[in-house]
């Protein structure tokens, strides 16, 4: 593969070429990215340091926050730095690494969201067997499978990328490397590769979304047999999960289940997907979860007490 390839680097056109707008992009997305890091790292530290958050639900939330952090980091820092540059170039190898990391942590988030749905299903529909089914060993093995599945998916993306031949031009009309914009630059026929892309990424996102929504319909239907208090608590958690699922899968389905055709809103949808969602997820889970908020208050109070002692 990679035969007759004359391109050693690509030029990323970014979101805008206007100098004033590039400064606005820099400030805006620096704030967004720092907020993403702060929010997700706060959840990670809170779950790790609080024994009350030792249930499988928070075990999976820990890995969701971790994947959110890595997913955003795969694109945001470079986009922020490129906003200060007059010409944004990325080497071919860096481009390949970005494609791999973007799909690796994106697909990891898909698998984690599926595991969170399974956890809620067992907790609500099979409460007597919950601790047996969702044991620490099962949860750990499930996350391990999710990591391996993500590696398989992202490796397939790299294989498809390396099967393309680039002989110029090298202008990517995007702010990061992905298989979709790279298809437009290939010198060879991309019909089969695009078909494989839709079959791989598109099918994963579409099938996973349908499965998740169907599972939450079953979960919500089963809540009619619960007490008012139990129904309120479970409903609050499920609504948070459903909101995250819709926000995450909506852009994925739009981007990866269609032919390689450019739409005016593509970049903004990609921004929402790679920068916005990792920022919103910690807000959604903390604002609607009393246990996480209480644990964060305890963590901050411990920090204040330790600072006072010094």
From TrEMBL:
Compartment(s): Cell membrane; Membrane
Gene Ontology molecular function: G protein-coupled receptor activity; olfactory receptor activity
Stored Pfam families: 7tm_4 (PF13853)
Residues covered by the G-protein coupled receptors family 1 profile domain: 39-285
Database matches in InterPro entries: GPCR_Rhodpsn, GPCR_Rhodpsn_7TM, Olfact_rcpt, Olfactory_Receptors
Transmembrane regions listed in the UniProt entry: 24-45, 57-76, 96-118, 138-160, 203-223, 235-256, 268-287
Keyword Membrane found: yes
Topology with respect to the bilayer: Multi-pass membrane protein
Segments forming a coiled coil: none
Any Gene Ontology CC annotation: plasma membrane
Keywords: Cell membrane, G-protein coupled receptor, Membrane, Olfaction, Receptor, Sensory transduction, Transducer, Transmembrane, Transmembrane helix
PANTHER family, A to Z: OLFACTORY RECEPTOR
Homology family: Belongs to the G-protein coupled receptor 1 family.
Function recorded in the entry: Putative odorant or sperm cell receptor.
Name of the protein: Olfactory receptor
Gene: LOC106825944
